[in-house]
Design goal:
The structure is a single chain. The N terminus and C terminus are likely disordered. This protein is an alpha+beta fold. The strands form three sheets. It has a nine-stranded mixed beta sheet, covered by helices on one side. Strands 3, 4, 5, 6, 7 and 10 form a six-stranded antiparallel beta sheet that branches. It has a single domain, classed as Phosphatase 2c, domain 1. Helices cover about 25% and strands about 25% of the residues. Helix 1 packs antiparallel against helix 3 and helix 6 packs antiparallel against helix 7.
Length: about 375
Amino acid sequence: MVNVVDEAIRFDVATAATKGERDYQEDSLIASFPQGQETGFAVLADGMGGHMCGDVASALVMSEVFSQIKMNEMLLSKRITDISGILHMTATAANDRISRYVDERPDSYGMGATLLATVIRGDELYWVSVGDSPLYLFRDGVLTQLNQDHSMAPQIDMMVKVGAMSEEVGRDHPDRNTLTSAIAGHAIAKIDCPDTPKTVRAGDIIIAATDGLQFLSNDAIAAILQETHTKPSMDITRALMAALDDLADPDQDNTAFTVIKLGASQQIDRSETDDMEGAAFFRRHGAATAKTPMLETVASNPAPRTKAETAPIDLPEKRVIRLVTSQTLDFEQTAAPVETDAPDTPGKPQGNTSWYRRRTSND
C-alpha cells in the first residue's frame, strides 16, 4: 500500500530588531511558523506617541492581532474561514483595544501604531497593513513592495514626477513620513487588506518590516538579497543589520523585521508497510526538523558572536532571533538584474511633533 505525503512548504524564518539611535524601542514583532504546518504568520507594529506611549501602543496592537490570528489558526489552516476577513477584523480589534486603553488613561491620548500582519498558507500570501510598514517580496532578483504606503511619501513622489517639486525638496520634505492612516483608537482612514492573495513559490523571500529598514534604499536592500538569497534567513538578517550599521545615520529609527524564506513543497511516495524504510527515506531526503530556538547576540563589528539557549536572560538591545530552522535550501542562482517596482523612498524622518509623524530626535 502506498500513501502520498504532502510535505508542507518549508519556512526558514528569522526576526531582527534594533533600537537604532533612539533612546527606546517602539517597534514590536512576533512570528509563528509551527513545524509541520503549511500555515504561518508574522505580526509587527511601529508605535507612535513618545516614551511610555509608543512602545505600549505597538505592544497592544501586536498582541491583539497575534491573539486573534492564533485563536483562528486551526480554521485558517483547514481552509474553513476567510483569511482576508479575519485579518481585516484583527485591525479593527486592535483599534478598539487602543481606544479602550486611551479611555482608561487619558494622558495617553495621541498614541497609535502602524500594523503589518502577514499569513502564508500553502502558496498563498495574505496581509493586512495600516500605515507605512513595508511588505517586500524578493523573487528572481527583483524586489517589490506588495502593500500600500499610507504616508505622504507617495504623494510627494508623484509631485516630483510631474515636475511640481524638485527631487531634492521631495527627498527631504518634512511631511514625507507623515502618516495618512494608523491604528489610533478612532476611525481607520485606510486599511490595505486584499481579498485575493499573492501567489508565492519556492525561492521567494518575504520581508515584513517597520519603516526603519527603509533608511536603506530599495536598490540597497535588493542588492543585499541578491548576494544572500541562497543563504539561511539568519544570514540575511545579519547582512541587513550590518548595512544599517554601516550607514551610521544619526537619525536611524527603530527597526524591526521578519525574513521568511520559502522552501519547496513536494509530494513524497512511501510505503507504510515498512516504518524503518519510511524513516530512512525521510532522513535521505532531509525532511525539515524543528530545533530549539536560539538567541544570538549580534555585534556591529566582526567580533565573535555568543550563543545561548532560550533560558531567562537579559535581552540585548540589538538581537536576531531564529524562530524556525530547517535544512539549508539550495535555490538556483538567478542572474536577473536587480530592479524595483516599489517607490524608492529611503525614508529619513524629518521634524515631527505629533503622533502621526516620525520623530527625528530623542525628545
